[in-house]
Amino acid sequence: NNCKLTISTFNDSTRYISGNRCERGAGKTETSSQVLPNLYAYKYRRLFAHYEPLPANKSIATIGIPRVLNMYEDYPFWFTFFHELGFRVELSTDSSHNLYTQGMESITSESICYPAKLVNGHIEDLISRGVRVIFYPSVTHEFRENQESDNHYNCPIVISYPEVVANNLDSLENMGVRYLNPFVQIFDRKAFVNTMADVLATYGLNKKDIRSAADKAYSEHLAYKEDVLRAGDEARAYMAEHQIKGIVLAGRPYHIDPEINHGIPELINGLGLAVLSEDSIARPGTLELPIRVVDQWTYHSRLYEAAAVVTEEEDLELVQLNSFGCGLDAITTDQVKDILSAKGKIYTCLKIDEISNLGAARIRLRSLLAAMREREDEILPQDSYVQNRLIFTKEMAKEYTILAPQMAPTHFAMIEAALKPSKLTLEILPKVSKEDIECGLKYVHNDA
Question: Residue 33's pLDDT is what?
């Protein structure tokens, strides 16, 4: 036990222990949590431990892949792709605070989320281990899992961070590292094959080789997704058999990293609850549409679908993990809360960063558990969270002026000019005052 504990001993020889991050620190056994379903632990094993790299002497070359951000979604795909082409895939080590400090000097923004800050350390780890070819792509769109969603973008930080690394890690150039960070349309097979054929041209691989490896990579990606859903079904069956409740610990793919989630899944298990992930229960079609927000991000779509599933299950509640610095989650937290609240479910959000003190999280989770017990016999309300937005019509275009806030000077100026020949009247509001911000805070989550 490596927690820093405060042990208070009283005159009657009783002791009170505080500061512990798990129940073991308080002297309790973990027998119950050892058998309870934990989809976070399962996903982490399935994602990385499932794959055995080729021996160095039987490979074309070694390619390093950092264990970061979108790799918590796409590693099965990328490992299979390079493995089938004959590369040895070298994965960076597990995340830790020491690894974070290893890349701290090149972190460009203190306000960025902790998962992004860890990227620098993972790249430095690969370099320190002698890896001289590193692959870290910019994936603008993830696979489209939900045909009803408005789009399937990746998070802007996930998309752009390979570029940040390319421009800020001096050790890449100093150590002679070949850094491959192409923009890849992973959901488009034809475009993917063309891009990767160009990226790997120096290794003498033709498009036929690339296409064959890509086919197996796409198949493995689907196999991984099916395994997670199957594990979710098995967890639900276990819950029903043993009459226990569960928490859908909803977050982004990288929240399964123990260094990022700080042991919250195990803490929930310690309270006698099963832990499921949002993608282990989210099956498109449960969510009632339309919702209040534009549903254009792949990870968000899962959050909303998972919340919709929770509203229909008596033995499930949802806890959302939110990393400090994630502006996009300012949108998701409000929308997930709307979905749950409409059906009488309790919404709990845990904000996490590099600080690993879980005292506040433990209090929140125990409060949630107490509320769940009190409401077991209640009949929950069943209001609708559907919100129909007002549509801008062609007729309105003749009479209305569109007011647009200034959010990107270069782009918005071009948009204003491009729309002048049309029948639309667009006016960019160039100045932002303190009063504008105060007004905005009445309607927008403070994290945005």
Answer: 43
